[in-house]
Structures are given as C-alpha cells and as structure tokens.
Amino acid sequence: MLMQTHEARLTALREELKRRGLDGFVVPISDEHMSEYIGGYAQRLAWLTGFGGSAGSAVVLKDRAAMFIDGRYTIQVREQVDGKLYDYCLVPQVSMGKWIAENAPEGAKIGFDPWLHTKGWADQVGKALAKKGSELVAVESNPVDAVWADRPEPSPAPALVHADEHAGRSSAEKRAEVADWLKSEGYDAAVVSALDSIAWLLNIRGADVERTPVALSYLIAHDDGTAELFIAPEKVTPELEKHLGNAVTIRARSEFESALSGMKGKSVSVDPDYGVAAIFRLLEDAGAKPVAERDPVILPKAIKNPVEQEGHRRAQERDGAAVARYLHWLSVAAPKGGETELSAAAKLQEFRLATGALKDNSFDTISAAGPHAAIPHYRVDEESNLPIEPGSVFLCDSGGQYLDGTTDITRTVWIAAPDGSAEPSAEQKDRFTRVLKGHIAIDRAVFPQGTNGSQLDAFARQFLWQAGVDYGHGTGHGVGSYLGVHEGPQRIAKASGGQAGTGQELHAGMILSNEPGYYKGGEYGIRIENLILTVKRDIPGGEGEWLGFETLTFVPIDRTLVDRSLLTEEEIAWWNDYHAKTRKILAPQLDGEALAWLEEACRPL
C-alpha cells in the first residue's frame, strides 16, 4: 500500500526504526557519490518530508523530528515541510549532533547510512553523541528504503562516449597524469567516487542524474595508469568497451565493495568530501591504508583546456541567442497578463530546444515572479506557481547542457504594464544598480596569481554594503564542461562559514559564475549572472603573474532597472562595451522582431 501523506511516511519510518532497535535516524539529501543533484532512487528526503531543495537533512527520533537547512532554504522549507511534524533548524547556527544529543534519550542508538555520509560527518556527529552517552550506528541497509514501496530503480541508461573533439584530451593522457600524481605522493591507488570526476577522467557521459550528464559508477585509478570501472553491466555498450580499451577493466558495480576489501596493504587516496564513510571502513577492515586526500581529478578538471574553453564560447553564443529570444517574448507577452512562472519556464525551454543542440537543462529553471524572486533557490511547481504580474520584478536563472559546454545565466527584468504606467520603485532601481556595480567590479577585476575566491568576494558586495544590505549566497561557483553546473574547487564567496573552495587559488582556465544579488523577503529579488573565464593578464610594468576574467555570457541586461546616476563613467563604458559585444554575437542569430528588440536592448546607456 502506497503512503500518500508525509505524516504516514514519517510514522512508517518510526515503526521500522523501532523494529531495528534504533532510537533515531538521519536522512540526508545525498547519494553514494555525495552528488549535488541525485537520481530519483536516492531522493529519500523529498519522499519523506516533501522538501525539494538541493541541500538539507532530516533527523527522525521516536517523538520528535527536525529539518536542518542553510540560509538559502529558510522560506522554502516552511512552504514544503509541515511544521507540525518537523522543527526547522538553521545550520551552522544549530549543530545537528548537538540537537540529537539534547533531544534523544540517554544511551540512544541513532542510525545512519554509511553510503550517504562522509567519514568526517560521522566522526563529528559520533563524538557529539558520545558526550551524552549515545551512539551513532551504521546501518547495513537504509530503513527509508524498507518503507518506500514505490521507490524508483536506478537509471538503466547506457554510458556514452564523450568524443576527444569536445574533451580536448584523451582519457589515457588524463589517467597518466593521475598515475604520476599517485607515484609522487606514494599512493598505490585512488578511489574516485565523484561521478563528474569519473566522467571527466574516462571521457564518458551518461543520463543517470537529471541535469548532470553522468553515469552511476565507481572508479579505482592505479599508479600504472590503469583503472577499474565499476558500472552496471546493462550500461556497458560495445562503443564504451572500445573507447576505454585494455587499460580500463570494466567490472560490475556490485563488485566495488569486494574490490575495496581486496586492497590489503595498499595505500589508497580517498577524497574526504566525496568518499563516503563506508569506503573508508571497507578499506580499513581490509588492512589497507586509506588516506584522506583531495581527488586528483578535481583540479585538472577545473582548469579547462583550450578545446573546452572554445567549446564554452560556442555553447554560450548558442544559448545566449535562445535566452535573448525568450526575453523578447517575455517583454511582449508578460505585460498582457496571463503568463505564469511555469508558462515562462516552458517557453524558455522551447527556445533552447529549438537550437537542436540541447541535451538537458543544467539545473531546474528558477522562474520567479514577485516575492518568489526573493528566494535564491526557488523551484516552481504546480502548487507554488504564481502569475507574472505587470508592474513587477521577474527573475529567471537557468542553464543548458550542450556537448560543448554548460551554461548558467540569470536575468532580472521589469515587467511593464500594458499602458507603460508602472515604473520600478526608486529602491528597486537602487538595489539593481548596486548589484550591477558589483557584477561589473568582478568582471573587471585584475589580481595576482595566488589570489583565491574569498579575496575577490567583497568586490561584488561593497556597493550593497554601502547601503546597509547584503546577500546570503556566494558570488560565484565553478562550472563544468558538459558536466556539473556547480563544480569545485574554485568559488567566489565569503571565507567564513566553512564554505569549501573559497581558499582555492584561481588559475587561468577556470570558469566561474559572477552572480551578486539582493533579496527583499516577500517582495522582490535581484540577481545578475554571467559566466567568466579566468585568463592571464599582461600589465605593462607589472611584476609577477597576473590574472583577470574573460566574459563568456552575452545577453542584454535590463536597462529599465538601472539608475544611471549611480554609475561611474568607467561602469557606463563597461555597459556600452558589453552590449556592443552582445549585439555583435547575437544579431547574426536573430531576425524580425527579436532582432529589433536586441537592437533596442543594446543601445548605449
């Protein structure tokens, strides 16, 4: 019998925990690879609670439960998760381990799935519980799965070859680089469990996770350049076997645990952020020596080679034209009334599909009208769908997956009234212009080699800070090449709060987003986002190596929301130069009314 209500599902889980002798259980948004986006089979938290965000966890005790989310989801969690069933806990202000210790009975046994948590998390929470006489217990099978009767099966889609013409380097060349690293560090092998790392290293892609073209698998890379790929047999095609060659042994995914158990005496590198607790435990039990070390694929994957860089430019040109057609359509249709967040998102999808090159969206489109624009990670559905009202701010954050690149763009626009009577408020124009100034400051930044993302973050925030306001998310994240739209290790964000990647030195070839914003809860939100490529800068008379950014995204920014008086002459010059380039890139791809709209949108400010 299928349980339709989240209350019934919570009750069923508690009964299952009682049968197992557990006093509680932790349910994260996670899969066995610590992926950001996960397949339907792993959506345990959404099934249990109704929460649709991409980060969060629930703790279920006998008579109390709590949702742990960060500042991005404070509004969303209240809309989607029943407050009568779950407390809302904001991290890092509220520690999960401390909450469990305070609310669970003394001597409690709290279960966790070691395939869905890192070793660091298990050690930290385990210590917090031990102080209260409780115990964190690794379960052999997930109790949520036991009560989730209609749980989807993992995707059976075949793994696909990603041609060298898009990858820019052969898999053999990449594996040799990893082998050199292993030998230099004194490791026999590395466990690579991050799905995008496996995809990049082997030049393969897949369709197992929505929005990220990866294939469910594990990989063990050896110090002689060979590798073992653990993947479901039905996903292996003759083309894949031929592509991988003799140096990559293909084994069933179900053999991964036994392979780890057979590594006695080996020194094995395991990434502490992507290698789950179960991997460390299996290696330790086998008599191997697992060492917490960053995945050797992550940095080379982040530094795009010339082929990947050029592919990104082509993908951005194609995607930019689709978004421009969409913004033209929006400028005509939305003021008439009758459009909604869902209808607008569907129209944007139409324009991207019309390119003939779209493989998937790179994430769920954030189509946010009015107050929903104040939710940075809002996701529209049938229940939340709002009309797009004339005389309001509308925000759209979206992206596409193409064989030659991954895109991510946000535009915030003013939806005019039919008679042109409604104008943005002075506050809205002020906030938009301050966000724009921060965006320009990042785009124009020049900095010495060795600079990290946290050192640039204040460039974007300074103008908002001057008005006594700020935004609660990072300024920029890394982006993959036909891979994850959020890719480490680089990012631009405040150094505080334990954000991974803010200490990573930026290198030429790294792609980042540039997306400052402002959000007024319950009223409106603003974000301007382009992708930028880190490049070398030659400064006459400069000492040492210097870097800057090349803009990759070219789509008009809404001039209606700009307060020109707040811009300097240099900022106005940037605007005019940016829109001249936008016109040059997009005009050959547009015609008719869309071209006329572009010409108007790209006029000098």
UniProtKB/TrEMBL annotation:
Region of interest (Disordered), ranges: 147-172
Keyword terms of this UniProt record: Aminopeptidase, Hydrolase, Metal-binding, Protease
Record-annotated Creatinase N-terminal domain positions: 9-140
Domain Peptidase M24 C-terminal: 545-605
Any Pfam family matching the protein: Peptidase_M24
InterPro entries xref list: Creatin/AminoP/Spt16_N, Creatinase/aminopeptidase-like, Creatinase_N, Pept_M24, Pept_M24B, Peptidase_M24_C, X-Pro_aminopeptidase_P
Annotated ranges, domain Peptidase M24: 311-533
Basic and acidic residues bias spans: 162-172
Molecular function via GO: metal ion binding; metalloaminopeptidase activity
GO cellular component: cytoplasm
Similarity section: Belongs to the peptidase M24B family.
PANTHER family listed in its UniProt record: XAA-PRO AMINOPEPTIDASE 1 (PTHR43763:SF6)
Name this protein carries in UniProt: Aminopeptidase P family protein
Native species: Pelagerythrobacter rhizovicinus
